[in-house]
Amino acid sequence: MSTTAQSTAPTGRRGRTLGPVLLDVRGLSVDYLTTHGPVRACADVSLTLRRGEILGVAGESGSGKSTLVTALTRLQRPPAVTAAGSVEYRPVEGEPVDLVTLSERRLRRLRWRDLAIVMQSAMDCLNPVMRLGAQFVDVIREHDRSMSTRAAKARTAELLRMVGIPAERAASYPHELSGGMRQRSLIALALACDPALVVMDEPTTAVDVVMQRQILAQLVALQQTLHFAIVFVTHDLSLLLELADRIAVMYAGRIVEIGSAYDIYRSPRHPYTEGLRTAFPPLRAPVRRMTGIPGAPPDLADLPPGCAFAPRCRYATDDCTTAVPALRPVGAQHVACVRTEEADDAR
Ligand SMILES: Nc1ncnc2c1ncn2[C@@H]1O[C@H](COP(=O)(O)OP(=O)(O)OP(=O)(O)O)[C@@H](O)[C@H]1O
Fold first, then answer.
1. Is residue 305 part of a domain?
2. 272 C-beta closer than 6 A to ligand 1
3. pLDDT per residue as tens digits for the range 99-121
4. I need a labelling partner for 201 at 20 to 30 A (CA). Which of 96, 185, 186, 187 fits?
5. What ipTM was estimated for this complex?
């Protein structure tokens, strides 16, 4: 059965009006084909993303966040294969397309111009032997052949300035920039062709906390001006509580809770979300002792029966081991837990 988590809310945080649905993901499953058989790292994920919305994806290391977003953008590499599901992308003009089955040629046309991705490590994405500006000009001109090199250079300067990098740094090689500048230049590059969707996989893990906050503040400001949608992946729930309109929490390859950042902050309904929230308290919350979630995430090749979180869950009973719980509406969120109501009483 497909687990569905639709957003019907027309407004996001800060009272922003969200546009129509941009991405409609249905029953997406991704397997890693290993010598011991397939390992499902993304299981039956369904979600929608609206124009201008920021969706955060949170979860511990190994929960399947990167697998999900690389499958969304069709950037997964063997041994990963999309085993089931669809990713419907609805452009402003033209018919919706399923990114899972779209031809490589049509997909190439969508990249950068419709969907752009910012990965964890700028060094893996930037060409080390090419000056920064030349890399921008290449991307800009590949998608707009009518633009002169001169105009593309002017656009590069504008993009760099947008993220607080002096335009003359276009002449630098990536290794001549600080880590923060490299990450910011990747964000600028992602915005080069004015995409409707930017997917970001831990885009600030390589920089220190102060730089991280600066980059995120800049990102929010840009997003409010340019209105692109963001799927933002991180293990740090506190960061998403500040940034995202909605948050999807992943555990063992599944979405276990999805809801508005406000609701997830105020009243997490899945015991795993509750644990994550305690492990990553909101930045502005009073200081208190941080506690991790006891135990470790399961081996995806050897999942426990029923709810994969049950062995670590303080509310678990035998009921939890009979079947994988489906996402269901609980209050304002969707939660995959059969014990939510009982856990609420115990909280
Ligand atoms: N190349 C691979 N071969 C086999 N299994 C893999 C491979 N890459 C990932 N996996 C499996 O997929 C799971 C999810 O990995 P993924 O990188 O999507 O998690 P993540 O939540 O993004 O973690 P992180 O925060 O560490 O990047 C891993 O725990 C592992 O079991």
1. no
2. no
3. 999 999 999 999 999 999 998 77
4. 96
5. 0.96
